[in-house]
Design brief:
Structural class: alpha+beta
Strand content: 5-15%
CATH architecture: Up-down Bundle
Mean pLDDT: 81
Order of helices and strands: HHHEHHEEEHHEHHHEEHH
Low-confidence stretches: 1-35, 253-266, 483-490
Helix content: 55-70%
Length: 490
């Protein structure tokens, strides 16, 4: 199964970083290598038919297993771990052999030597290199978590967009059905000479516009589904049957990242005092308060980008000490044994032991230039960390404001939809009775306006609901909280 192969690759990376032993596999067969060069189908991943419902949690599991950016980040983490191992190996002893000929007494003599060398890090240059590699490895591990959080957000966003597009198809189909019924009624009443031909033309126009709306909605739904498939890492032509189980949340006061002063649904304000109270309530809702402060504190503690920046600073600081290596003394102990044959064939065996101490006198300014570069790397890392903190602060505030706005819009859009349905029902009663709200206005025209208003209200209601759920996903990402609450089922 492809999904298990991907999970094993990412799991191997995490196991290496965590210091746990992991099993390595032999070189993959050529067929498996070729299979990794192409995105799989859903059936190839799950082993189930494509038409089975997919929940948001199943989509996240599949997407995390097949994510190309996540796999690249895991590979980078493994490379960083290997680089740390390479730096540590500089402290290990080395053994070498040197077979060859020695020119002795006007003749070449066969010789064989073996020598072992143990470096002694008296200046700490090797330890500085190891420490720098370790911090770079930590940064790579945090980058893996950062990419994982982004992949989760991308999957949730694409999932909600696909559900939104599907709901808008239902709105368009309902509008088309209503327009068809209106057209049928208009034609029947025209034959009975109960309405003017204008009502028939208007109904035909509305029906044609409803057909276009239905076509556009289906195209948008197909495109949103293809984008979700691409985000999951499967073939974009794969049909997806999405389930909104445990995916849709409705605004409640109990949400941990909630807002204060959310605008409540209710009667439409019809006087200056009510309008003033509404505007004051809306202004209060977007004022920074305890909720935003708590979200900022959590983000500063949990966002892997900041921890990654701290690791980059630490690695750069260790690089300053390592930059002085060409001015630092080195010490090593060597022990060996050599064998040489004399001209008469007599073997000469001699052991040897060496204590090598190298004290540089002048490196031509190389160390000074390296140190200057390393110090600038530290300053650049600090500047990048400050910039990252500012970006995170802006992202948290933007996510908070999006949630505030979406929470309010769900309430007012639901109220608007209720009122639009009421207005449409009244307009239909008047249309059937052949009367209108104002003299000289065609009941069919009034009916058409009411239907258009109802369709727009339903679209706004759908958009507000999924904008709210997208805002919740964005807030979870902004504060590095990937746990998805069960929520209310729509």
């Amino acid at each position: 199964m492809i999904i298990h192969q991907k999970q094993a690759a990412i799991g191997t990376a995490l196991a290496i970083l965590a210091g746990f032993p992991c099993q390595t596999h032999a070189q993959k067969p050529q067929k498996e290598l070729v299979a990794r060069l192409h995105s799989p189908t859903l059936a190839a991943i799950t082993g189930k038919p494509d038409n089975l419902p997919l929940t948001i949690n199943e989509c996240m599991r599949i997407g995390l297993s097949l994510s190309r950016p996540l796999e690249q980040a895991a590979e980078a983490a493994v490379r960083a771990s290997a680089h740390t191992g390479e730096a540590k190996s500089a402290l290990n002893p080395t053994i070498g052999t040197a077979p060859g000929d020695v020119y002795l007494h006007d003749a070449a003599r066969l010789s064989l030597g073996i020598q072992g060398t143990l470096p002694i890090d008296i200046s700490g240059a090797i330890r500085s290199a190891v420490d720098r590699s370790r911090f770079e490895e930590i940064a790579a591990r945090l980058a893996l978590q950062r990419v994982r959080n982004q992949v989760i957000l991308d999957i949730q966003t694409a999932f909600y967009d696909a559900l939104r597009a599907r709901a808008l198809v239902e709105v368009a189909d309902s509008n088309l059905k209503t327009a068809a019924e209106r057209l049928h009624d208009a034609r029947e009443k025209y034959r009975a000479q109960a309405v003017a031909y204008f009502d028939v033309v208007r109904a035909e126009t509305d029906y044609a516009n409803s057909q276009k709306l239905s076509i556009d909605a289906r195209s948008s739904s197909a495109l949103a589904t293809a984008r979700l498939a691409a985000t999951l890492g499967i073939q974009v032509q794969t049909p997806l049957n999405l389930s909104d189980e445990n995916a849709i949340q409705l605004p409640t006061a109990a949400f941990t990242a909630g807002t204060k002063g959310a605008v409540q649904g209710g009667a439409v304000p019809d006087d200056a005092a009510s309008i003033s109270a509404f505007l004051q309530q809306a202004d209060t809702a977007v004022q920074p308060g305890a909720e935003l402060s708590a979200a900022l504190i959590k983000a500063m503690k949990a966002r892997p980008e900041l921890m990654e920046a701290d690791a980059d600073i630490a690695a750069a600081q260790k690089g300053v000490a390592y930059a002085r290596r060409s001015q630092l003394p080195t010490l090593s102990v060597s022990a060996g044994y050599f064998n040489i044959r004399s001209s008469t064939g007599t073997a000469i065996n001699e052991p040897e032991a060496l204590l090598n101490l190298n004290v540089p006198i002048s490196d031509g300014g190389t160390a000074r230039a390296r140190v200057q570069q390393a110090r600038m790397d530290v300053e650049s890392a600090k500047t990048a960390r400050r910039q990252t903190e500012d970006v995170i602060s802006l992202q948290v505030q933007q996510a908070w404001l999006n949630e505030v706005q979406a929470r309010q819009q769900v309430s007012v859009s639901e109220q608007a939809a209720i009122q639009a349905r009421t207005a449409y029902g009244i307009a239909r009663v008047r249309y059937n009775a052949g009367v209108s709200a104002r003299a000289g206005i065609s009941p069919g025209l009034e009916m058409s306006d009411a239907q258009s208003a109802l369709t727009l209200a339903e679209q706004n209601r759908v958009n507000a609901l999924y904008d709210f759920n997208r805002a919740l996903a964005l807030m979870r990402w902004a504060i590095a909280d990937e746990v998805m609450a069960a929520g209310n089922k729509k």
